[in-house]
Amino acid sequence: MLRIATRESPLALWQAEHVRARLQAAHPDLEVTLVPMTTRGDQLLSTSLSTAGGKGLFVKELEQAMLEDRADLAVHSMKDVPAHQPEGLTLVAFLEGEDPRDAFVSNRHAQLADLPQGARVGTASLRRQSLLAALRPDLQIGMLRGNVGTRLRKLDENEFDAILLACAGLRRLGLGDRIREALDVQRFVPAIGQGVIGIEARADDTRTRDLLAVLHDTTSATRLAAERALNERLGGACTVPVAGHATVSSDRIRLCAMVGAPDGSRVVRDEISGAAAEGASLGTQLAERLLANGAREILGSLGIKA
Ligand SMILES: NCc1[nH]cc(CCC(=O)O)c1CC(=O)O
């Protein structure tokens, strides 16, 4: 028996069920069950995530369940996972990545560049807000919280002319046809870990780790090592406008990153390439360069010491 802790949002349940089905296919005699739970982040969906306390909110209850032996593993969107795991827990597998790009979704406009002057755009993240404002200072950008379905409903009810979501979440939920334009990763740099499902387990639980080994994707692991090293050096929170995306081809890696003021008035971008095996060190180096070139001031003005 293997117990999977998961949030109860439709996307989280899809991802947990996907992991369950793959484990079941690899180990036909194993019983795999879902243990759904509500996290503090889900309860606070109506308030701003940044004021509520950030990323850990979506994973804490799942981690508690593993530490108390009510579950053996937790399935996460890596985008929602903080830089550090609690004592006794560790990330044990990363699945093959879905499309990492942000999606432009609109009922009226075919692409971001078609938005008229002053159009209303909804987004749930400071990163998207910053990138968007830097690109198009004329837009009226509003905070859009809630599950993917809730956000699409707000668009359909005409609260916004367009919204930005992750392509991965839309595709997984069978809503890929809502994507009008997939935004280029160089220009519109994705969030650390966007599109990758990660699995956390107890560090000493070798049985669970062995059972999960079949799901592990080394390209995703290489990507995540670079992106998470970058994120860690930059303070490691999702409450800051930080973007980082690595592309891996054979033994090379290229990491793009951005730190921006939420209003887009200042944006620092840079990129670095090197050997894939050096990903984590490249991530740290790129973070140092960003900090030296203005990111330290941007983060400092948001109360983050990096
Ligand atoms: N913060 C919510 C969240 N966490 C992960 C995804 C998308 C799926 C993924 O990145 O794997 C989403 C929804 C969104 O940003 O549109």
Would you write up a description of this structure?
The protein is α/β, with parallel strands linked by helices and 306 residues long. The chain folds into 3 domains: 2-95 and 196-216, Periplasmic binding protein-like II (D-Maltodextrin-Binding Protein, domain 2, 3-Layer(aba) Sandwich), CATH 3.40.190.10; 102-182, Periplasmic binding protein-like II (D-Maltodextrin-Binding Protein, domain 2, 3-Layer(aba) Sandwich); 232-301, Double Stranded RNA Binding Domain (2-Layer Sandwich), CATH 3.30.160. The chain contains 10 helices and 13 strands. It has a 5-stranded mixed beta sheet with strand order 2-1-3-10-4, with helices on both faces. The protein has a 5-stranded mixed beta sheet with strand order 7-6-8-5-9, sandwiched between helices. It has a 3-stranded antiparallel beta sheet with strand order 11-12-13. Strand 6, helix 5 (126-135) and strand 7 form a beta-alpha-beta unit. Helix 9 runs parallel beside helix 10 (279-301). It is globular, with a radius of gyration of 19 Å. It starts with a strand and ends in a 5-residue tail after the last helix. 44% of the residues are buried. Bound molecules: ligand PBG. Ligand PBG binds next to strand 8 and helix 7. It comes from Panacagrimonas perspica. Residues 2-209 form the Porphobilinogen deaminase N-terminal domain. Residues 223-291 form the Porphobilinogen deaminase C-terminal domain. It catalyses: 4 porphobilinogen + H2O = hydroxymethylbilane + 4 NH4(+). Its EC number is 2.5.1.61.
